[in-house]
Write a structure and sequence with these properties.
seven-stranded antiparallel β-sheet; alpha+beta; three-stranded antiparallel β-sheet; 22% helix
């Protein structure tokens, strides 16, 4: 590394956009679906001491996910698995150079390998017409993953069952070491919380009138990580303080859900948070923050995620009383700009 690079801060991307949750062309749900692999969901509601029952029910219905240990990858390309669980999908593998050469499957160099390619991305289209049982392509992939270079890992699996009859993950993988897990849910009440003053129609903010979307994003990161906003000179950890203008709310409700949470459940939660303003509330806005897995091979859509350089990939909705919303989408050093 050149000396000049040592002091250079890692590149980060933050994309902000504004919309209205009830606009016919709003893409808020599409953005959630485009970010498939989420490990933590938090929402913060100022001026709220107790959740409405409908929100409690939505949280309780987040659903299970599953841990399967020592699962051979070739089982994910078996047509029994595809027919039972995959309507349309791909298997994306991020592998090192040696594994790539041993597998002998077609792939492409990682975008973040540098001059000397050390990592490759292999994409297998599981539901393509030419991947049917007994096809040359299917047999080649199955042979590579089962015999030429057997690979097995621990997997987290989640499945959105729309109510159709059929196999369940627990029964399908009963011969494997499978364990059903429930997301961890924590509730807390934050008291005397300094909150930025926001105007839904102004992303940039105005001096002495409202804070910008970037200032809100930074403040929210401090709140969710329980960083003090006191700006005390005696603090060795943080001198951060709430941006101005701000106001103090007597109490704010914070809920955090940790696990493998699928987009459909996040959309249901987002919809109920929008409905929160259906009756008059003291709060002018609330937030919903979603973090992706740091080591996921993809972030938004199928964009390659450079997890070896930080791993940040998250988005945040600020939902206003009039159902305007701000959407932040953030990624770390080695990622494409979010859509």
């Amino acid at each position: 590394m050149q000396p000049a690079q040592l002091g250079r801060a890692p590149r980060h991307l933050l994309v902000c956009e504004r919309g209205h949750a009830r606009h016919p062309r709003s893409r808020h749900a599409a953005h959630v679906r485009d970010h498939a692999y989420s490990c933590r969901v938090s929402f913060l509601i100022p001026e709220c001491g107790m959740l409405p029952e409908v929100l409690k029910s939505t949280i309780a219905d987040i659903g299970e996910y599953y841990l399967v240990r020592n699962l051979p990858i070739h089982e994910l390309v078996a047509h029994e698995f595809i027919d039972a669980f995959v309507k349309k999908g791909k298997l994306i593998l991020s592998v090192d150079k040696d594994t790539y050469e041993e597998l002998g499957l077609q792939g492409r160099p990682s975008r973040y390998s540098g001059k000397k390619v050390m990592r490759y991305i292999i994409t297998i289209h599981l539901t393509d017409a030419d991947f049917h049982p007994e096809s040359k392509k299917h047999n080649r992939v199955l042979w590579a993953l089962k015999e030429k270079k057997p690979l097995e890992f621990d997997f987290l699996l989640a499945w959105y069952n729309t109510g159709a009859e059929g196999s369940t993950l627990m029964s399908y993988f009963s011969k494997n070491q499978i364990q059903a897990l429930k997301p961890k849910i924590t509730f807390s009440t934050l008291r005397d919380l300094q909150c930025p003053v926001l105007q839904s129609n102004d992303l940039q903010g105005k001096p002495e009138e409202s804070c910008s979307t970037e200032e809100l994003f930074e403040w929210l990161g401090a709140v969710l990580n329980q960083v003090s906003l006191d700006n005390k000179s005696s603090s060795f950890l943080s001198t951060y303080c709430c941006p101005e203008p701000n106001t103090v709310v007597e109490k704010a409700f914070l809920c955090t859900i940790t696990g493998f949470i699928i987009p459909e459940k996040i959309i249901q939660l987002l919809e109920q948070l929008c409905c929160y303003f259906g009756e008059p509330k003291l709060a002018y806005w609330l937030t919903l923050t979603v973090h992706g897995f740091a080591d996921s091979p993809v972030s938004w859509r199928e964009s390659e995620h450079g997890f070896h350089k930080g791993g940040e990939n998250l988005y945040n909705f600020v939902i206003f009383r009039n159902l305007d919303y701000w959407l932040h989408m953030a990624v770390g050093a080695h990622d494409d700009c979010p859509p």
